[in-house]
Amino acid sequence: MVITIFGTVVSPGLTYADAETVAEAYSNKIRPYLSKYCFECHGPKHKKGDLRLDSLDPDFINGVDADMWQEVLDLTNVGEMPPPEVKQPSDKERLTMVDALTLALRKAMEAKRSTGGKNVLRRMTAYEYNNTLRDLLNLDLRFAADLPPEGVAKEGFKNNSRVLGTSALHIEYFERIARSALERIILVPSTQPIPYFVRVEPEEAFLPEDAAGSNPANKTKTKKTVGFQLEKGPGFSSGVNAKPGVFALEHGSRSIEGILLAGNRPTDRIGGTFAAERKIGGAKGAGRSGWQPEFRIEMYEVPYDSPVEVRIRCSAVPGANDSFPRLSFELGSFRGAGVSDQKEAANVEVNSTKMKTYEFAVQGANFPFQSNKPNRPSYFRIFNDYRRGTSQLTYEELPKLNIDWVEITCNHYDTWPPPQRKAILFESDSQANESTYAQEVLSKFMKRAYRRPVTESEVASKVALFERLREAEPSFDHAMVSTLTAVLCSPNFLLLSEPEAKQTANERKYEKRQIDDYELASRLSYFLWSSMPDEILFDLASAKQLNHPEVLLNQTRRMLADPRSQSFSQNFAAQWLDLAGIRRLAVNPEFFKFDERTKDLFEEETIRFVHHIISENLSIQNFIDSDFAVLNPTLARHYRIPNVSGGFQVLPVNQEQHRGGLLTQASMLFGNSTGAETHPIKRGVWVLERMLDDPPPPPPPNVPELPERESQDDDLLSLKERLVAHAENTSCRDCHQKIDPWGVAFENYNALGQWREGSNDPLVLAPHQKVRIDPSTQLNNGTKIQSLDDLQRYLLSEKLSVFRRAVVRKVMSYALGRYLEFTDRPTVDAICETLENDGDNFQTLIEQIILSEPFSAK
Amino acid sequence: MKSKSWHLDRRMALKAAGVSLALPWLEGMASDAAKLHRKRFFAGYFAYGVPMPADDADDRMEHGWFPMGEGKSYAAPRMHESIMPLRDKITFLSGLSHPAMRRTSAHKGADYFLTGANLLKTYDKQSISIDQHLAGELGNETRFPSLVMSSMGGVNRPYRSSTLSFDRSGRPIPAQNKPAEIFRRMFGEVTQSEQNALASRGSIIDEILGEAQDLNQRLGANDKRKMDEYLSSVREVERMTERTKLWQNTPKPEVDRNGLELDANPTSPEEYLTVMYNLLALAFQTDSTRVATFQTACEEAGLTDQFPSAIGLSNSSHSLSHEKKNYAKVAQYITFLNKMHSNFLKKLDSIQEDDGTLLDNTLCFYGCATSKTHQAINYPIILSGGQNMGFRHGSHLRYGDNVPLSNLFVTIANQLAAPSDQFSDSTSDITEVLG
Lengths: 858, 435
Prior knowledge:
The structure holds two protein chains of two kinds.
Chain A: E1 3-4, H1 22-37, H2 66-77, H3 91-112, E2 122-123, H4 126-137, H5 168-186, E3 196-200, E4 225-229, E5 245-250, E6 253-254, E7 259-261, E8 294-299, E9 307-317, E10 326-336, E11 339-349, E12 356-363, E13 378-384, E14 400-410, H6 419-424, H7 434-449, H8 456-472, H9 476-489, H10 491-494, E15 495-496, H11 517-528, H12 535-542, H13 549-561, H14 566-576, H15 581-584, H16 598-615, E16 628-631, H17 633-639, E17 649-652, H18 666-671, H19 680-691, E18 705-706, H20 719-726, H21 730-744, E19 777-778, E20 784-785, H22 788-797, H23 800-816, H24 825-837, H25 842-851
Antiparallel strand pairs in A: 1-18, 2-15, 3-14, 4-5, 5-8, 6-7, 7-14, 8-13, 9-12, 9-14, 10-11, 10-13, 16-17, 19-20
Helix pairs in contact in A: 1-3, 2-3, 5-9, 7-8, 7-9, 8-9, 11-12, 13-25, 14-16, 19-21, 23-24, 23-25, 24-25
Chain B: H1 5-16, E1 21-22, H2 24-29, H3 32-35, E2 40-45, H4 60-63, E3 90-94, H5 109-112, H6 130-138, E4 147-150, E5 156-157, E6 160-161, H7 179-187, H8 192-216, H9 221-247, E7 254-255, H10 269-285, E8 291-295, H11 317-321, H12 328-350, E9 352-353, E10 356-357, E11 362-367, E12 381-385, E13 396-398, H13 406-416
Parallel strand pairs in B: 2-8, 2-11, 3-13, 4-8
Antiparallel strand pairs in B: 1-7, 3-12, 5-6, 9-10, 11-12
């Protein structure tokens, strides 16, 4: 394992806006230094290495020597220049020059990418494209799965116009995806496909003598597996398989109505609070089978690519402390011996003791529901997802799910043709005249697709296209699929643009202007939903009612309360906090026994945490420290928090549990480790970048390396000491004093984010358990920090305004889809002030951004 | 299906190569003349450079990349064992590099490996890559002008490119990374939906280009730049459509997907690299394209950085590349990559065409844009195949650190396409590779 030491020396506290101008910096700090230490060799006399620094272009922004200046900075930074045989600058002189040059180069970079503080048109991101098609077509499929992976912005967000490229391959896929979605909707057979129907009364699996007594839990609870062959119903095709399917029940017990499912097996004794869940058999560790009782229906030759309706009649048998079971089901298929693939489709708490019917509608295509061989079944499984977790609950105390019956219908359509088709090809008196009808269809569809009113000529042009296509296409429907495909490949659909009104060439000017109500509706919906506006927003825009502060506030609150706002929590959190870091890193198996699926939970914890703060309108200070955590039993086990059972939940946490805020979550702690050991530099940079919006510049080339920790020798150095020992270069040390302490304070959290103290980490595998844990550190300004608690307190007191500004800037940059610029500063200042006076509530922050001038200006 | 004996022989040979194929149209449609002298080009890239123990170090031959000695009598280090059966068909090159990027802080190699562009000043001002230059000519006779692949897919971002290929305007061409999608595009059955799409695509493109022009007139300068990207992409799809139309009556080659692990992904590196290389071989073999690039890994943290797990190493390939003393592990890893590459070459060499093996008709250029730990000079390069285009092998050619790699590109361009005396920042050509 090798650790790169960042050899930079810019003070993280400085931002260019506070600093002098580039020209002043050059003449006051940079040139005098160069003149004193460099020109002798790299000047008119010697031109060593063919390089003259006295004639380098001091225009960092438009000049031709920007790259040479970077080189000058790098070599000065690592102390290679001036070479040891000549006169040396003092540390202070070097630091002053390097700070000035770093800021000048950063300012030049920002100037180069400036858009004058205006939004630039951009393509939808892949996830926005997916959501937009979902809402436009009312069809919930994973449309964007095959699009080329989106570029990854090192800084800024994925929705930043600058990083969103469009290639021929994109257009090829946009056309393909649109056409196949439209064909699926429009080119449906005239008669409704035969439904594939399965109904299971689970008690039929039991012999009559198993019938329940008064206490159903006592009956047959240790029975391992029961089941029966499904009858061939009218829905089963007469395919190659004689058996239509099988019902199997593992570790369920008989109840009066049907069967009872607990979250854990009756025999699954607790092996100690934090012992791993038992795994028996199951599918290569990928499924949940093994430790959880399971209700499974195996089916052959299902129409996997169809709407699936699932109806489950069940009730709750509450457990200890008024706990209720969780109904979870998944669709999947067996891929081979011991290998299965599945995805959860629903997970809801069942809190009624009376029998109720729960109905779910899902798209089979979104699940690995297709069998890969005719003799391998697709399957449907129910679990009670209330898990014992780290609690001491006995089997009897666990809440049970009482299942009366289950019905599964593939090819499920309430009406035929399906509503998606009728939404596009609605009934009309003009249907007899193809062109007139096409005109009506297109007017309605294009308005929603383009997210604005469409002109007559725009529609006429598409009708003409339809007529041209119709000459060759076999039917109205076919020609309409092709015409609507054109609409979905149009720049007016794919690009989020805010064009000017049509102007003649000589009056063309592009002054800053207020955007119109439709443009505002799109900005709102892509900000909060990552998707197109809904009917309510369209109606307000159409009535020109949207751009009023009180309307905007009401709409913002409505939109945040809508489930679609989860897209904001997910996409904003993932990009702001760099949750992709979790996937970039592999856990070193020499250091940890680790279940890869826990990585999903690291991500989910953070997204749910952020969403909780938004939806409950809590203070953004909770990001730094909170008195609650969002955990499920598996995460609780990971963090060693006892007495957590059930599913995901918001839990109060106390000081001893060392959890609260983003800084204590595994997503950050693991994502900024080496996968084996902690990495204070990465963690420090993360705090500076993500929490304080003050990223240190990247390290110069060929900086010294930090070697791997020597094995368990006696004079084991702590990582902190190794950092110091290897930053021998003065300028490296200067800089690392500004980065490392932020990361050192996290030393009580191992690479997986688990708490550790003293000189031994028992959660790490031998022989790597011996460590010297010392989170005490001193920030560059002299503040002494003893632990992460200290650092959190410091951030929430001394650094609160910096942190607040950072969050405002991050959310605003995401809201606008561009980098913030100098011209945005007054807005940021004003929002920060409002936020401070308003308890730092997250919704206030979002509302203030939406009410701000840049949000409605183009 | 025909059952002539030569057909059977061919399939036997293919089966031995791990895939089963039937190619009714190739033999039937191509004239004898057209089947001769097909010129193909492959460029492959691996990340982070190679171990370079000192020449007098004990482990020089055990762990080093570069051969000892020059000319025909060179001795190849152990990591090249897998390729040495092809000794007569490969050339080792050392010393070459792209001058403009010699002082770069590395990791940017994939951006300029095939373009030679000077990105230090401009960050993203690219120029055409050699493969796309060649595709301009070699790409006209096949269903696809080129095949662009990488393990990460897409384009990522400037300085950390996940594609080797850049078009005439310097725009990155997104790389494909999903074996199943690559297979579908090249060999998948043409569905009714795709036929419908092709029939209407011309009209659709006209329509959306018209819309785009309208929109363009109402945009400011910043917007226009983004709009240009959209416009030129649509125009390229238009060109592709014309090509596809020419091909629509020619059935796609029938390729048996059994034996291809199309579900493989970079979490299982050996399976994944194998299927990607197999798809490349199939693409050439079926004459679906004559130009292909494959960036085996991106020089950025991510799944491809964990490829050493294929041989049981827990280190990332980046951290391995920083090793300065004990080269055992990094050598073991590069040995693995070399084996993947040489398996590909051997596969090409096992496929007979009318005028030699597929390898004889394919010039393969493989290497990296850094040598030892982040030094952007002295690229490790293996040139192989292409004898029928005049290339002669069997040597280690050593050049000084001041020779531009683009000089080699000039020679390649001259042998494979129309004569030219310049590519990027070339100063001459390199005729030694022609024997």
